[in-house]
């Protein structure tokens, strides 16, 4: 069994490799890819694949773009943080999904389903249906955080957040005045919870609010240097690969 993993979070990719080795030791991981563009290039070579494990959100965009630029002729298992009820209708033979964090039993069941079907049908239509379905849903984004405070709780509005950052596997919320709080969420989970019109995943460590941007400057090798409006100087570098996506996000 030849398996391609498309995942931009290294811990998630490593977990998939580990689980697959335990469940299917005979399986061969043909590649681990972390961007839409690299996935398109790789799949355009028409590699021999039995199944693709594909994250929905990648470093340079949404993985659905892959299906519009190249042919995907094998079954796909999406790994996603989207709500299961929104995706349940799309558990079809050529398209499946697993909610993060991925559990061994669920992955095993998905692989068993693959064994039963062994279909070589093109999943592109199922992906198109999925995209239209997701667009039709009314999404409610997080507007505040409830956090422990002394012997009770306090709330922080998302509109008061300048940016989020991850360090040593701990996620921090930073207000415009520089005050910080720790959150029990990963940046990936926050991406799903926050309005994408207001928040952008600048890189693996930072998720920034559009209202906190003070200035943007060209940097070396096509990168961008973003200065945030915080009490302490804060610069965030956006890679050349994400620079175009960032500028499109700002130019809406």
TrEMBL record:
Q: Which SUPFAM superfamilies match?
A: CheY-like (SSF52172)
Q: Name one GO molecular function term.
A: phosphorelay response regulator activity
| Source superkingdom | Bacteria
- Response regulatory domain residues are 2-115
PTM annotation (4-aspartylphosphate): residues: 55
Q: What are the protein's UniProt keywords?
A: Phosphoprotein
| Domain HTH LytTR-type, residue spans | 145-252
Any one Pfam family here would be: Response_reg
Q: Which InterPro entries match?
A: CheY-like_superfamily, LytR-like, LytTR_DNA-bd_dom, Sig_transdc_resp-reg_receiver
Instruction: List the Gene3D superfamilies hit by this protein, alphabetically.
Output: 3.40.50.2300, LytTr DNA-binding domain
Q: Which organism is it from?
A: Pedobacter nutrimenti
What name does UniProt use for this protein? LytTR family two component transcriptional regulator
Write the lineage as a comma-separated list.
Bacteria, Pseudomonadati, Bacteroidota, Sphingobacteriia, Sphingobacteriales
Query: Is Phosphoprotein there in the keyword field?
Result: yes
What SMART domains does the record point to? LytTR (SM00850), REC (SM00448)
